[in-house]
UniProtKB/TrEMBL annotation:
<protein>
    <recommendedName>
        <fullName>Sulfotransferase</fullName>
        <ecNumber>2.8.2.-</ecNumber>
    </recommendedName>
</protein>
<comment type="similarity">
    <text>Belongs to the sulfotransferase 1 family.</text>
</comment>
<dbReference type="InterPro" id="IPR000863">
    <property type="entry name" value="Sulfotransferase_dom"/>
</dbReference>
<feature type="domain" description="Sulfotransferase">
    <location>
        <begin position="38"/>
        <end position="301"/>
    </location>
</feature>
<keyword id="KW-0808">Transferase</keyword>
<dbReference type="GO" id="GO:0008146">
    <property type="term" value="F:sulfotransferase activity"/>
</dbReference>
<dbReference type="Pfam" id="PF00685">
    <property type="entry name" value="Sulfotransfer_1"/>
</dbReference>
<dbReference type="InterPro" id="IPR027417">
    <property type="entry name" value="P-loop_NTPase"/>
</dbReference>
């Protein structure tokens, strides 16, 4: 049934995290078979926290000598970021033991699974993990819109009301949820293993993309040279990957890709703003979700608001 729409697929709780059935199966295959290399880069996120943006940024940074950012043939101009950097869950959903050995380094993959579900080779190798979190209130609003967009393609389905969706979200019942649980786990690991895990926030990327691009490049062992800085390479990457630029590319306006169902590339670009929740959530919703998140993060040093 997920071919018609992942939203119809049952959702299961496994080790404290909710998965759609097909995602859990794929996550388990990925955990069992994926062999990490020290040169791999794994981008970990909760759904709707800016995965598409992170994919484009990391690809542009790491491939800048092969594809100069202003190159007219840059892959990000003709391929959706999810085509450029694939999800491991999708690779392993389609083939339980794919051969990924011929992909040249650095191999960049993304995942929504929690740290504890990552294959042992990822946890023990020197491969780099970048985790991107986002304010759960913005994640919720983004996810609610996204879910209803996907449901439009499913005959006789009804839109999900915000109230119903919100109750489930507060209980953590969303794909790979609760998102605050996952963020906290990666946060703690990033403190334990700062050499291997870089923890980023969507809001910081929006506030100062240049400084965050420098952190990303440094963490991945390819810092910007002063020459590159003078030539404006950082600004060029920021512009190439900006919401305005990516969402207006023909490929992202009209193309489609097989996600867990066929989706239009434009579903990954909605508003790309910080704080849209204020226009959507009632004060009591805000209070409730803030309480749930604060209770979980209390004393950890991590804030998601
Ligand atoms: P909104 O729905 O709030 O607009 P993901 O990629 O994890 O699915 O997250 C999608 C969210 O990231 C959407 O948020 C989308 O608009 C936003 N987004 C996509 N590309 C972006 C970009 N280049 N810059 C900033 N935000 C972006």
């Amino acid at each position: 049934p997920f071919e018609r729409g992942a939203m119809c697929n049952p959702i299961h709780l496994y080790k404290g995290i909710w998965y759609r059935a097909h995602s859990l199966e794929a996550a388990m295959a990925f955990q069992r078979h994926f062999q990490a290399r020290d040169t791999d880069i794994i981008l970990a996120t909760a759904p709707k926290s800016g995965t598409t943006w992170l994919k484009s940024l990391v690809f542009a940074v790491t491939h800048r000598s092969q594809y100069p950012v202003t190159d007219q043939n840059h892959p990000l101009l003709t391929t959706n970021p999810h085509g450029v950097v694939p999800f491991l869950e999708l690779i392993y959903r389609n083939n339980k033991n794919p051969d990924l050995t011929s992909t040249p380094p650095p191999r960049i993959y993304s995942t929504h699974v929690p740290y504890t579900m990552l294959p042992e080779s990822v946890q023990t190798s020197k491969c780099q993990i970048i985790y991107l979190c986002r304010n759960p209130k913005d994640i919720f609003v983004s996810m609610w819109h996204f879910g209803n967009m996907l449901l439009k393609d499913i005959p006789s389905s009804q839109p999900i009301t915000i109230e119903e969706s919100f109750e489930r979200f507060c209980k953590g019942i969303t794909m790979f949820g609760p998102c605050w649980e996952q963020a906290l786990e990666y946060w703690k690991k990033s403190i334990e293993k700062p050499e291997e895990i870089l923890f980023l926030k969507y809001e910081d990327l929006k506030a100062n993309i240049n400084s965050q691009l420098k952190r990303i490049a440094k963490h991945l062992g390819c810092p910007f040279s002063s020459e590159e800085e003078n030539e404006g390479v950082i600004e060029d990457i920021a512009n190439l990957c900006s919401f305005k630029h990516l969402s207006n590319l023909e490929v992202n306006k009209t193309g489609k890709l097989f996600f867990f169902q066929v989706v239009e590339n434009n579903v990954f670009f909605s508003k790309g703003e910080v704080g849209d929740w204020i226009n959507i959530l009632t004060p009591s919703m805000v209070e409730k979700l803030d309480q749930v998140v604060e209770h979980k993060l209390n004393g950890s040093g991590l804030t998601l608001n």
